[in-house]
Amino acid sequence: MVTIEYNRTAALTYARRWARERNPAFYDFSGIGGDCTNFASQCVYAGTGVMNYTPEFGWYDISVNDRRPSWTGASFFYNFMTTNEGVGPFGVEAELSDALPGDIIQLSNERGEYYHTLVLTGVRSGLTGRRFYVSAHSIDAYQRSLSQYNYTSLRCIHILGARVE
Question: Which residue from 45, 131, 149, 160 has the highest number of Cβ atoms inside 10 Å of its Cβ?
């Protein structure tokens, strides 16, 4: 198996193109639970070009009826990305201060349930510190300030690369 670099530029280009629209190659889950993790998966895929077709625990989307929960579910996505030792993208949980554009941010509610997945698309430093900007589906956003979201806590997934056979 060979490890390839995560193409952050490709992931960010995809996010810019599809943040306010839907790519017809993928099903739109907006009306049935949300499309946020689906969009984040599409961005990560754009940056790696690799899916993991393992039947039970893989990360792929062939069609609405042939996909893995890790493609569209926030917790399943996190579990796959942070434990994947096989083919496909992989990453580690990181502090927000260490996250880079193209990484993934997930927000939790007061019950500790991670309910929203965002793509980090910009970081700016200023007099008041660093500001983080995200893009997402469900409530479509491109370069929206992370500070505009209501959440109890967050976690970041720093995408390290992908493995190919």
Answer: 45
Q: Which CATH class is domain 2-164?
A: alpha beta
Query: At CB < 8 A and 24+ separation, what contacts does 8-14 make?
Result: 8/47, 8/100, 8/101, 8/102, 10/46, 10/47, 11/43, 11/44, 11/46, 11/47, 11/102, 11/119, 11/159, 12/43, 12/101, 12/102, 12/121, 13/46, 14/42, 14/43, 14/46, 14/47
pLDDT tens digit sequence for 78-134? 999 999 999 999 999 999 999 999 999 999 999 999 999 999 999 999 888 899 999
